[in-house]
């Protein structure tokens, strides 16, 4: 669920939307269940949705943090690259965009591995398969 929260964050889902969706989901289940809906059903669905929101929220916040760290690393690398001067002409060198993207991809992979041990996220596996 945490990983799913990360993915939903890339879609632009906000935490407040999770609460609204939970209310709508619970009401839809209530209307379509063949049994008589009781207060216990309501409490059970509220309990279930609280767990979903907690896990999704954790994933969404982790994704925001990871994205910020990657942007900081990218900015730091760009600053380092642009301040290097060419020894012959004493002029600032341009940053190679392809190398920059490759660097960020490599950093993301190392960051993911350091946070999750030796396990890759599903998105990283998909990216690796697409590259091959």
TrEMBL record:
Superkingdom of origin organism? Eukaryota
Q: Where is this region: Disordered?
A: 72-99
GO MF annotations in UniProt: heme binding; oxygen binding
Basic and acidic residues bias spans: 72-91
* Alphabetized InterPro entries for the sequence: Globin-like_sf, Globin/Proto, Mb-like_M
Tell me what this protein is called: Globin family profile domain-containing protein
Q: What is the lineage of its organism?
A: Eukaryota, Sar, Rhizaria, Retaria, Foraminifera
